[in-house]
Amino acid sequence: MFNQKPVISMKTSEAAVVILLLLTGISYGMIKLELVPHIPVLLGIMGLIVYGLLKKIKMAELEYGMIEGAKAGLGAVMIFFFIGMLVSSWIAAGTIPTLIYLAFELVTGKWFYAIVFLVTSVVGLSIGSSLTTSAVIGVAFIAVSETLGLSLAITAGAVVSGAFLGDKMSPLSDTTVLASSTVKADLFDHIKNMSWTTIPALLVSLVLFAVLSPELSSADFTKLEGLQNTLLDMNLVHWYSLIPLVVVALLAVKKMSSVLTLGAGTMAGLLVSMLVVERKDWGTLPGILFSGYVSQSGNEQLDSLLSRGGLESMFFSVTLVLLALSMGGLLFKLGVLPALLSGLAGSLKKVPVLIGSAALSAVGINFLIGEQYLSILLTGNTFAGHFQKAGLHPKNLSRVLEDAGTVINPLVPWSVCGVFLSSVLGVSTIEYVPFAFFCLLSPVLTLTAGFTGLTLTRIGRKAVA
């Protein structure tokens, strides 16, 4: 998609009208009509096709644009499939049940949401993957929340906030490396510079989650103990069930590819599951990689938590991602996105306007295409020269790319991360967005830095504090 050439050129004002109509239509369909996101996005694609035909563009060109857009998501699709298999194999191996059991142990009478936020932050920082953190640790905390009758929306917001804080600051994260390398900033200088906006966002988020955390009664803990005993009775809690998690963590530290890491984690899960499942049932294990694990404990609540995973569970996410990226491909082919980016990049002489435009570009691409990598690549390449002309160090731009690009993706219902998280956590994007405090605060703080000049680094100078 990134290498596509638009077949027509248009004014920025016309492009803005097209985008406004498109986003209004998608938002109305999802929020007002409560449609699954596939339908509004598909209708948006059809509208763009009609617009292209009216502009005398050949249908073959429009089809090519959609195909090229969809190609950009094949890497994400493969990761979705591997995570689906990982989840089912880890439940069979007792990895996720053991983590749920341990998560129950972490729960105290106070600070539940704050604990969720801190734990997912540490795990995300350790392995550098927000999606893996959410799929494993996040699922465990969602199980605890559902058991205690707490808000799933706030719990999901804490999971997303922590997972993306860790992902954003981890040197093992793809987006962290991509943001720094795109603008040619040193990786660790980039991470250090992000602390100016990350630490305040972390502290404010922690306070908010602590304030929202309820007081838990002794009855709640009795309920937890009952579920812990059920997990033990199901023979799903073992120390060796954590081996697959260790395998994934080690490969992540060694910076192996996501597909290889998740594949190894899945195979480790299948091998460990042979110690958990009776020998006569070994033949059923490969099948769960497609259809998912089905729990039959007799406890309805626990069965609903543990019956998940598999390739099949990812089909909703995969189809939506491909549709959204196809729409992005059309926006490129029609020249809509290039016109918008060109308009934003023009006449950028004042630093506040420059940083605000870069942030708006990163946020906008997340909403228009739903892909965080492209929000980083397109914005970084568009604004790198302008930051240099303004005398700003490249790490200022790389911070904007993360604060307004990386952490915004999970807030978009039709984005790669938004679709995946709502599927895995069982909470819609629109429900958890108001409580994803860290993700909401990050762009605000990066804009504040731009407009006040605080923490900005000039070329050859240290940060202005």
Automatic annotation (TrEMBL):
It is found in: Cell membrane. Residues 162-453 form the Na+/H+ antiporter NhaC-like C-terminal domain. It is a multi-pass membrane protein. InterPro entries: Na/H_Antiport_NhaC-like_C, NhaC_Na-H+_Antiporter. GO terms for cellular component: plasma membrane. Keywords: Antiport, Cell membrane, Membrane, Transmembrane, Transmembrane helix, Transport. The chain crosses the membrane at residues 12-31, 37-54, 74-104, 110-128, 135-165, 194-213, 234-253, 259-277, 314-332, 352-369, 407-426, 432-456. The keyword Transmembrane applies. Belongs to the NhaC Na(+)/H(+) (TC 2.A.35) antiporter family. PANTHER family: MALATE-2H(+)/NA(+)-LACTATE ANTIPORTER, NA(+)_H(+) ANTIPORTER NHAC. This is Na+/H+ antiporter NhaC. The lineage of its organism: Bacteria, Bacillati, Bacillota, Bacilli, Bacillales.
